[in-house]
Every structure is written in C-alpha cells, then in structure tokens.
Specification:
The protein contains 25 helices and four strands. The protein has 402 residues and is mainly alpha-helical. The protein has four domains: 43 residues, no CATH class; 93 residues, no CATH class; 129 residues, no CATH class; 105 residues, no CATH class. Strands 1-2 form a two-stranded antiparallel sheet. The protein has a two-stranded antiparallel ribbon with strand order 3-4. The longest helix has 19 residues. InterPro entries: Znf_MYND. It holds the Pfam family zf-MYND. This is MYND-type domain-containing protein.
C-alpha cells in the first residue's frame, strides 16, 4: 500500500508500515522508523549511511556481507583479521552466517566475544543452548567448529598456509568456470593455464571475473574489475550486482559477454536477456559506456574511495591521475590532508548517497567546495577544504570558450 501525502514508509525495508508519526534516527535525522524494534533491526544496514566516513565496528561489516539474502566473504581488511577470514574464508562465511541469521546470535555478543578473545569459549556456550539435533548432527556446523576451533583463536594466519589456501581457492574457481568459457570439464589446471594464454587481455579479464562471480563472491575492492564491470554503481542500483551478473551468465554465452565487454555494451546485454533493472539504470549505463578503458574521473574516484574503506591503513591503491587532478588530491601537502579528502568523499558517497554525476558536474564547473557545503559541515577545516577542493576546470573552461 502506498503512503498518503501525510504518511511516510518505515525505513526498515522489510517492514512496509506507513504512518504519519514515524520517529527519526537521532544521529542522522534522515531515516524514520515505526518502532524501536525496526530501528534496531535495520541498524546493521543503516549504520553505513548514518556513520559514513567514521569508524564502524567490524561486526557490522561482517553482518552486511553475510546478509539475509546473500553470503559473501567480507572484503573489509580489519574484519577479515578480526574474524579469521585470512585462514579459511569460504567456510567461515557460511559458519558466521549460520550464527547471525539462523541461530540469531546478537551482533553485540559476537563483537564482545571477539574483543575479549573469547570466541571459542563463547561459541561453545551458544551451541550448548541450541537444540540437540544441531549440536549432534554428524558433519554439521558444531562438529565442524570443534574440529576447526583454532580458526577462531585470534592468531594471525601463517603466511605459508595462507598463500597455499589462496592458490588452492584460485585454482578451484578457475577450474569451475572453465566449461563456461568453452573448455572441457576434464581439463587439468595445467591445460587450462596453457589454453588461457591464447586469450586476449579482455577475454582473460572476463574469464577471471566469471570465475569470481560463479564463486558467489565479488571482485576485491583493489581489483580493477570492480570498475570495469560497473560495481562502482552498485549502491545506486540497490541490487546485488554479483548475483545479477551470475544470472546473466546463465543466459548468455562467454563469447557474448566478451564481445559486450570489449564493445562497452554490457548494459545492452543485460537488457537483451531481460535483466532490465540493471541494463536500463542510468548510472550503470554511464559507468559502462566507455568500459573497459574510458571512465569519467568521478567513477575512478568512487573506485578509490571504496578501496580506502576496505583496505588496511596505507594498503589501498593510490588515486588515478585524473582523480588527483580533478578532485583535489594534487593539492594535498601531507597524509593528513589526503585523509580529510578521503573522509569527505566517503561521507558524500556513503551517508549522503550523492549522485556521482552531480558531483562530476560540480567538478567540471569548479564548484566542488559549494557542492560539499550543500551536504556537509566543513568546520573547523573550512579554509583548508577551500584550498584542497580547487581544480583547474574553470580556467580550462574559460580557455575553451575564448
């Protein structure tokens, strides 16, 4: 039922209630809820908008990626460290999802156990309260936990073991995706690698992307494929783009995917196979219009900001030259000023979900400062931001008109 002119819909998407007396989120004052229960339930999602650019506990990154309708290995670096994903990523994703979604362990309890180094002890107690059929299931989650309890001890992964596991996982997903690319299911990894050498760069990128997607994952934030396959527009699409690509690949051939990728026509391929919510979306169409080689600098900026948000401090890729020139990074004198810009753009894209093309338009007019002021309180750094957010576009535009 659509809300009336005086009613609003509850901010928790699974609620659907409408009312003229919804209560505001006390922090951002932007989202309204019909009850404290809905607000509490939605907090694991809303926190990323409400506290964009600020420190967020890793338990919320864990819950976000192990969602109600999806399960993917977390990409956020510190989350992977805190919850052991550097040791056994796929298995731990399934196990933690069971704890959070099926057993419904409160996030605050898991966070407390992790902070205190008591995950092993705490998880044992959690399973002791579960029905006997869950605890006693042969080969079930509790049995798996007892065998692999060392994964939860908080110790860093052994580098040699970690490298071996990564190699095994990469080999597995490549072999699994090979038949889609026209290879024989019986081909060995050595055969696949020798034939893969015949691929063009774009064909190999498509093949590796498909391998990742078929693994029910998404490209890591620092992998260029997140940009070239349009994941920088996923927030606006409001869909799991990885799932949509997996659906597309079930309908189209590998050859069609490669041709669309090379011809900057991936959105048209989505539309051809009936996935119009992706194919017709203007932001996805814009980012893919020049892929895999040409992008507006705002999309490269968003790619960079997403990488910063997921990486260990100092471990992210540097901004592209066009981002340095257009969005103020060339004006930074030290790491502190770079961080100020990182936080500003993280809040614009996250908490305020600004239209990237509107930000791009402001950039081209030399009005980045005015654009930022529309959404953010810049004090006590207003003067510094005024210097940082200058670019050459007004001068370039004047020269073009003269």
């Amino acid at each position: 039922m659509q809300p009336t002119a005086h009613e609003q819909r509850c901010g928790y998407v699974d609620c659907g209630s409408t009312s003229s007396d919804l209560k505001c989120c006390a922090n951002c004052r932007k989202v309204r809820y019909c009850s404290a229960k809905c607000q509490t339930t939605d907090w694991e999602r809303h926190i990323f908008d409400c506290k964009a650019g600020k420190s967020i506990s890793t338990i919320y990154y864990l819950a976000r990626d192990l969602g109600r309708y999806t399960c993917k290995v977390p990409l956020h670096h510190q989350t992977c460290i805190d919850y052991g994903f550097d040791k056994a990523p796929t298995e731990l994703a399934s196990f933690y999802r069971l704890l959070i979604r099926d057993v419904q362990v409160p996030l605050t309890l898991l966070r407390k156990l992790q902070k205190e180094g008591r995950l092993v002890e705490g998880i044992k107690r959690i399973f002791e309260t579960c029905p006997p059929e869950i605890r006693e299931e042969k080969g079930g989650p509790y049995h798996w936990f007892l065998v692999h309890h060392y994964l939860f001890d908080g110790r860093a992964a052994d580098p040699v073991t970690q490298a071996r596991q990564m190699l095994t996982h990469t080999s597995t997903i490549i072999i699994r995706a090979w038949p889609y690319a026209g290879g024989s299911p019986s081909d060995t990894l050595e055969t696949i690698l020798s034939k893969r050498a015949e691929f063009s760069t774009n064909q190999f990128n498509c093949f590796f992307f498909v391998a990742v997607i078929f693994d029910q994952s998404v490209p890591d934030p620092d992998i260029w494929l997140r940009l070239t396959f349009g994941f920088v527009a996923e927030q606006a699409l409001n869909v799991n783009l990885g799932f949509k690509y997996a659906e597309l690949c079930k309908r189209c051939t590998f050859k069609e995917l490669c041709e669309a990728y090379e011809g900057s026509s991936i959105p048209a391929l989505f539309t051809r196979y009936g996935i119009v919510d992706v194919g017709h979306h203007p932001l996805f169409r814009d980012v893919m219009s020049g892929s895999p080689s040409t992008f507006k600098s705002v999309w490269r900026l968003k790619f960079y900001i997403e990488d910063v948000g997921h990486s260990r401090p100092g471990g992210h890729t540097p901004p592209a030259p066009s981002v340095v020139a257009d969005y103020g990074y060339g004006n930074c004198r030290n790491a502190e000023e770079t961080k100020l810009l990182d936080e500003l753009y993280a809040q614009l894209f996250g908490k305020h979900a600004v239209d990237p093309l509107a930000l791009h338009a402001a950039c081209c007019k030399g009005q980045l400062l005015e654009f930022a002021k529309t959404y953010l309180k810049l004090s006590p750094w207003t003067a510094k931001y005024a210097r940082l957010l200058k670019n050459a576009y007004p001068i370039l535009r004047a020269r073009a008109l003269s």
